[in-house]
Amino acid sequence: MLTNHKKAEEIVNKVNNESHPLESGKDLDPFIEQIGDAKYVLLGEASHGTHEYYTWRTAISKRLIEEKGFNFIAVEGDWPDCYRLNRYVKNYSDSGKSALDVLRGFNRWPTWMWANWEVVALAEWLEKHNKRLAVNKKVGFYGLDVYSLGESLEAILDYLQQEDPKAYDTARKAAFCFEPFGYEGSDYARHTRLVPESCENEVVDLLKEIREKIPQYNTDHETVFSTEQNAHVAVNAEHYYRTMVSAGPKSWNIRDHHMTDTLDRLMNFHGENAKTIVWEHNTHIGDARATDMARHGLINVGQLVTERNPEDDVVKVGFGSYKGSVIAGREWGDVMREMNLPKGKTGSWEAILHQSGANDKLLIMNEWKGDPLFEQQIDHRAVGVVYHPENESYGNYVPTIIPYRYDAFIFIDESRALHPLHIKPDGHEMPETYPWGV
Fold first, then answer.
1. Can you give the residue range of the structural domain that contains 32?
2. How buried is residue 66: exposed, middle or buried, by Cβ count under 10 Å (0-12/13-18/19+)?
3. What is the pTM of this model?
4. Residues 280 and 354 placed together within one structural domain of the fold
5. Quick count: other Cβ atoms within 10 Å of Cβ 12?
6. How do residues 248-257 score in pLDDT, each as one tens digit?
């Protein structure tokens, strides 16, 4: 928290003088110009349940796709679910009747992260955009996450049963190892804590066999890639769940390494000139080295992508809001509910931005690097899928050196909850999710 009132006032004045009002898609022009020829644009969010974060990321993504030729969107979601949506937006046959049809199948908690009307709108736009493009030019949609152990094994079995009976036996052996736990990673994790046996060898053998045989598979190129990716998910999910029962940063770091490695594979798959848009929480896309995450031994996607690529190739964008409403649960697996998002606490980044004017704004951060005024940690709100608004000041703020965590920042003064598919509104009519045309 920033307690020096004079410095806080100086920051407020600087933000007031140098921020850009954000009212329509046209107001993104300074940011689109800043991106230049970057290949990685990482778009954050301060919660997984805020309407404006999804709609502004959609507005940015559309412009990057149309104006700068970006090839795919990669999100903090499960590979099998997102690959089904990828096939829909790329106009594959038998891929679903509509984006709504596909997204209703996203049933892993927290379902609202991707099964929402805001993503329906994005997916339908992508599907329409892709219709006029050649197969190798269509814009994709992929999941980067590591949680889909059972779903990934099932997808591998379905593919290999038709294409490679011998490899199917290896996959069946791996699946059989997880059967006693119902393919649930948390149950498997508890078992390995009590009994020093694991399924590590089975999933590693499976990945090895698939990688060796990929040149022999003659089905469509992308489905072969997806099968290999599901094998990577199985290996890293097994490792993730086996380590999650112990305290410390290891399981977090396994997950973010997996997401970054997946992004690397996707970039290689799309060719040397590929460009990607990443949608993840601020805690994943903002550089961990500019926060207290580093002190706790945590790395993240933003740090890894920045370290692996030239500086000008990566642009990281943070999001935040001062007050409003949000979708979340009060515990893991809880019913989703709309909650109050309290005003940002005094001295926080959100409070400072509100004090500089109660309006939405875009900030370009690069010119603030090296400015002593910003060479200090300021508390910056992060809301998870499990949220207790009444206690947020005790654990929902990440001390951050703002211009080193992000290259740009989008601030919403008063945000509102997004529109999940699985709770109201739950009809077949899309609610009004875009107050301005993008």
1. 5-77+276-415
2. exposed
3. 0.93
4. yes
5. 17
6. 789 999 999 9
